[in-house]
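Title: Prediction job returns without error message
Component: structure pipeline
Severity: low
Priority: P3
Assignee: unassigned

Description:
Job completed but the reporter wants confirmation the result is attached to the right record. Sequence as submitted:
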Amino acid sequence: MKRCLMLLLPVILLLAGCGHAPQENESLESMTAPMTADHSQWQQEPYYILQFNVDSVISNAPNVTATASRVIISQGGTYLLSGTLQDAQLTVEIPAGETARLVLCGVDMHCERGPVIYSNGGGTVVLLLENGTENTLSDGKSYLYSGSKVREAAISVEGDLLITGGGSLSVEAIHNDALRSEGTLAVAEGTLEITAWRDGLVAGQELQISGGQLSIACGRTGLSASSAKSGQGSVTLAGGTVALICGGDGITAAGSLSATAGEYHITTGGGSGNASYGETAEKWGLWGGLPQQRPTEEQPIINREQIVSDSARGLSAGKSLALSGGTFTLDCSDAALYSVGSTKLSGSRVTISGGDTAITTQQLTLSAGDVSILTARRGAVAEDMTLSGGSLSITAMEEGLALSGGYDKSESDPAADLRKMTVTGGSLSICAGTHALDIGGSLFQSGGSLLLGSGREQNPLRAATAHISGGTLLAAGPLPEELQLYTSLPRISVELWLTGGRPLTVTAAEESTPMLSFTPETSVGYVTLISDELEKETTYYLVSGSARIGLSPI
């Protein structure tokens, strides 16, 4: 506290024309951290200087004052910050419509009892990371005004918050969240290294990532957008590189979540190997969230031994999830892709290691892109699915893809009869421990390819009806007797032992290149092939290991 009390005097003296005076050939600019030769555009306009000297501040800004624990900016404008500030808060008190541009040029700031940067007037705050500079912000374990209107985050802004510039920013949030904006939180560029006891980046309305490099380790959610008032919030991913290690969800939006570009590496709840399912699991929800105890020097921020969250999803949306670009690598103990409404995959490259169900949604649409589920308890669960392009490959311990809870003739579910899967293009390849494709309703296929492999003595395709008018359907395993199959396409059905892990190829007699290849994970003894590429009175060879059978379609 004594150091904080000294903040006031140097500011007053400087503003009065006393105190530290520049020596010969010394200017305020030379007292700041070194500038890069390539000055950014902000330097073309007037700006003020704030130099922190551990427990004092020197400034040429008439609208900067200080109290015992705060340095206060009371007007919009551009402010160049440098130096070290210990145990004090930088407060930005500007109304909505004004913008305070804070140029971080080699700062080390810490506030023990509250947010290190706090804006309470509704205006816009821009953190510009000066090229080539390293900047560090941190808070303490306990906030003095905990539970009040002060948002409990190391950087807390009631208006909009924008982060840009070519420098770096390290934030250590020991109390709660790292960065929080009640409006829009946007990252355009810069390098961000963040550790947080709770959440990483939190937006009240919209979270935008369009560039930069973000590395976040947190106890709960990495990136989130949610409004307590409206229950809405959107996340837009349009560029940059993001690496998240989260005890809870990776990226979540109360409303919509969309991605058009960028590279994302997300691990949640300790990864897929930390999922709680199977005979040893006492209950769900033992694999994510906050540590029971606040961190200490001996115990890191991320503690997975004792956790309290019931959600550790990769991407989670309250209404809709749309991935049209970008690359995602997801290692999640819970669902990797989750949406209460629709999930549209139209151009992204997604690689999933999931502990629970890899994809959970109401309506699943794949029109472009490449989605690969390497491991999961169940591959995907939806009410309806449409496949028109792109590729989806699934390896699952139980069902590969289940619609409406799957098909069970012993149970009466009128709604299940209305569920359907429509395939007009693209490719779907499934290797499942039980049923590869389990539909509580009907399959309609007019194009594309379905390659289905089930567990031993399991049906690869379970549905009430299957209407195959085009495309290719390969079922490695017997089709159930109760399946009503409607097709006029050429068909091959044969008892053929397939050893798990060994590829099955289908080759026309006059061709050396296989027309298709599929590798089931488990051994089966029956193959059904239906395809508009087959021609009657033509011999096709089914080859698996040393087994080779030549057949003509019927």
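Comment from assignee: result matches the submitted record. Confidence is low (pLDDT under 50) at residues 1-39, 278-292, 300-308.
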